[in-house]
Amino acid sequence: MLNQYFWIVSFTALVLIGFQSCGEQNKPVDAAEHGEYTGIPAIDAITNDIKKDPDNFALRVARCEAYSAEGMFKEAETEARLIWEKDKTNWKSARLLAWAYFDNQKSRPALKILEQALELHPDTIHLLLVHSEICLKVKQYDKSLISAENVLKQSPLNVEGLFMRGLVLKYMGDTLNAIGNFQTAVEQDADHIDAYMQLADVFAAKKEKIAIEYYDNALRVDSTAYEALFGKASFYHQNYTADNGLLEKAKAAYERAILHHPQEADVTFNYALLFMEEKDYEQAAHFFDIATKYDPQFGDAYYFYGEAQEKMGKIDVAIKAYENAVRNNNRFGRAEAALERLKK
């Protein structure tokens, strides 16, 4: 999925120019608009600068982005709304406010702001792309597709337009045409990691080996990309047999993923499952245990840790693990069943 902040990275650099034409730029800003201190040094430094130069909208955009990065979505929304109120005709401010609303779980106001801005700026590609993405996120696929198509009418080889159209088509079930859009996107931008990942995942679901090529392309762009490392390992895991040589590749791929992302409990859990399938219960238990250390509420990891211990005859350890599973998202009631069996 597109990184929602991609569209506002360039905004900080351009916003000062964009607001120079604002008719209200020279009006005094009320002291209440300066903002409160947060205790976060980076944000408070921007607030100090705003107090000295309250009409500097580049600073306000920077603070809005900083709020969002810290998960302070209400504050980001307030800041974005203030920027937008200063000039409701500026499409950049509309885009910023739309994302602030969406981050704050207000999809309807986000879309309303974008639609208002598109009435004034119907051919603005950045607005159309954001509108397409947010519509996709709220499953308004028809509207999302229309906006993506409008981008491509203006710029037939626009990489993000191709990517968005591919995403929408994928979610609408048109996998073949989705693949075509993703492939054209990477032809235009050989480093488009999101398009490579979409292609990899589509072909992985079909169990086609070309998925590995796309995962490798994603890793060429970012050698530590978690989704690509995990996806590649999972492909080998799901498709290995006793004689096709993929078992060792799966282990190596999991080890590489764990090396770069040891804190990700899911990849360690899946690695443990591989050992479980191979009846190497000691190794399986070891990695299930590690998964629970990184995610103490990982019910499945506790359950399978208990199962591995039970297979090795360590009943007391297994019982404790099953009890942990019951307390932590025990799915399907299987931990209770195991406890009932062992405590008879």
Structure in a nutshell:
This protein is 73% helix and 0% strand. The chain is built from 19 helices and no strands.
Question: What are the defining features of this structure?
Answer:
mainly alpha, 19 helices, 73% helix
Which SSEs are present, and which pair or pack?
Elements: H1 6-19, H2 41-52, H3 57-69, H4 73-86, H5 91-103, H6 107-120, H7 125-137, H8 141-154, H9 159-171, H10 175-188, H11 193-205, H12 210-221, H13 226-239, H14 246-260, H15 265-277, H16 281-294, H17 299-311, H18 315-327, H19 334-342
Largest sheet: none
Terminal CA distance: 50 Å
Approximately what portion of the residues adopt beta-strand conformation? under 5%
Give the class from helix and strand content and strand pairing: mainly alpha
Indicate the percent of residues in helices: over 70%
Shape: globular
- What are the low-pLDDT stretches, counting only 5+ consecutive residues below 50? 1-32
Radius of gyration: 25 Å
Please give the count of helices. Answer: 19
Order of H and E elements: HHHHHHHHHHHHHHHHHHH
- Overall mean pLDDT stands at 90
Care to count the β-strands?
Answer: 0
